[in-house]
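User: Before I run my own analysis I want an independent prediction to cross-check against. Here's the chain; please return only the structure tokens and, at the end, one sentence I can use as a sanity check.
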Amino acid sequence: MRREARAIIALALLACSLSFIKFSHCESTGWATPDQYIHACYSDIPALFGERGLSKGDWAYGNGADSVEYPVVTGVVMWVLAQVTPGGDNDTKNYFNINIFFLALLFIASALLVFRIKPEFSYLFPLAPAVIASLYINWDMWAIVSMLAAIYWFDRKKLLLSALALGLSISTKFMPIFLLLPIALIFLRRKEMREGVKYIIVTSLTFLLINLPVLLTTPEAWLRFYTLNLSRGSDWGSIWYSLSALGINLANLNYLSILALLIGFTVIAIHLLGLEATPSLASVSFIVLAIVMCASKVYSPQYVLWLAPLAVIAIVDKRDLRAFWVWQGAELVYHVAIWQHLALVTDAKFGLPATGYALISLVRISATLYLVAALAARAQRSSQRGSQTYNPVREFLFESADKYP
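Assistant: Structure tokens:
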């Protein structure tokens, strides 16, 4: 086992090095536009270092409308690392390098957690090309590692540690809050509702304790992340942006995205409740977050960092590897497409027009849903092994009326 773990660490180090090589071009040119898009090495880290006042030593939530647009733990990380960044002409480069050092450590830790959860397929995470391409775009790894820890501890019945880790992860990036849906359904399946209530209370209290100091001292800056996400229109990578780019403009976007989420959650609930055996959180987390990302108003390129480890821990059969690599291929093509489209938008001589970008975005979303369907079908077949064939989604949608006159 130690030899396998060392191999995973080696693969993770290789992935971090390859990602550094990819991003190093922008570091050498000072992240100039449109060059940073042409060479696909854009990162939020140097961009927000100056734009959010971190380069001047400002508190992350002390600049009103120019405060950081992230939950509290990410904002604190951004600020603390800015405080230890050497100043001078190279302060932006120094800030970037300090940040990616910690992101690399978190990536290695995440790879080891994936190894602990699903050792037979854990090599897929550090080898995933879209993961390598996206590693240093943002601070997402700070939330991903605590999310994976929450999943690991939950499936090993260490519920207090899991709830604390999930509360920390939600306070870092908020996305993991949607894991409370499968967690609640798993507790329901186990008939452990009291434990479920305790879990949600601990998660909520952890979130509250982390957020309360910033909420009480700078409430407007604390709310900025949430108001921006509620008020934003269709954004990069989303199905809604793609449809708009293709000339299909839909009104009431907030309601449509919420409706799409509710439909997705309903199908997920029917699927989970229809399984013969109670699923593990590791086996269903990918399905939940993938549906959230496909239905939301933004589907950023670095979201592959969230989905890749969840897809790996959900794989139960080698036959699902084809769907995984199809999805990774679509993610990699999209990774190139968004930067080439942004290059054209920022006055590069060449780039990808909006129609091409929209079509590639839809292919990416389709590939994500293809992997969701493949993993859900595999879970369904595994659950039905030795029992009568039963498809709860089909029955709910198409056959339930047959039971009534």
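Sanity check: Residues 2-381+388-394 form one domain.
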